Structure formats: C-alpha cells, structure tokens
Amino acid sequence: MIRLALAATLGASYGIYGPAFELCENRPIKPGSEEYLDSEKYQLRQWDLSSPHSLKSMIARVNQIRKSNPALQSDWSLRFHASDNEKVIVYSKASEDLSNVIVTVVNLDPYFTQSGWVDLSLDALGIDPTQPYQMHDLMDDARYMWRGPHNFVRLDPKIMPAHIFQVRRRVSSQHDFDSFL
Fold it and tell me: Which of 160, 164, 157 is nearest to 72 (CA)?
C-alpha cells in the first residue's frame, strides 16, 4: 500500500506488475534479490484474484483519484513539505492555476502507526494563512478542517498508510447560512 501511494502520487505516470503486486507477492528468489520466487518469468501461474489480501480496491481507488485530479498528471509542481517525524513524508502537487491541489502524506513505516506535525508551504498551495481550509481525504472521503501551516496527522499502516488530500480553500460553515425559526 505504501509503494502504491508513493508511486501513484509522486510521478505523473506509474505502472505495476499485475497480479503479483496486487496480491502482495514478495518472496525473493534468493535473499537480497529483487526477482520474485515463482514469478511468471519461467512459468504460467494461476492467481487467486479474490484473495482477501488483494490490493484491487485500493488500486482502483487510487487510479480513480489520479484520473480526477489534473495535479497528479504532471510533475512540474512537486513540492516537499516539512514533517517532524522522519517516517512521515509530505508532498504536494498542483495544477498550474492552483484550482486543483493535492497534498499526500505517507507513513513510511510498514509496521507501526506514525504520527506527527506537518508544515505546509501555504503560499505555494494558494492558501490564505488566515482562513481555515478543508483537507478532503480522497482515499476514505474523510474531511478535516485545518488552519495555518502546522497540522497533526496520524497514519496506521494496517488500516491505510496514506492520506491523499484534495485541498478545498473555501468551505461553508454554520455562520455562512441564515437560520430560520
């Protein structure tokens, strides 16, 4: 899941090796080798595509996110942001007109939950530092209200090791509506 999140959001294009990646096949042919044991290089394999360990739904979701967000379809705007935890990487990509801004936060530790404070370069993202903004996690549809550059994140690799946030600068609040009694 970590490799998928990084590959799909850092580069404008990416690819994966079908069923072996989707089903998390990772036994090396010998220690230290990148070549997989029982790969399709020398044989035909039957894959259990209905395995409960399949990344199929995550791959589909990430591909849908990539298709819907022009910021992820180019590399010119890739920018890294600070984190106080070395096991949490934070970066953003934006469309040229800043109408589409994606901030990705990834837990690089495949075994343990990691948390920390991230510091976004708000000017580069077109965010007014005096106004709240919404971080819409496109992976699970959760929404968070952030204010300023310094905000907290927590990622459990057993659940989802990455946030792929779409930044929404103008969000409605309860004060934006007239109430009628």
Answer: 164
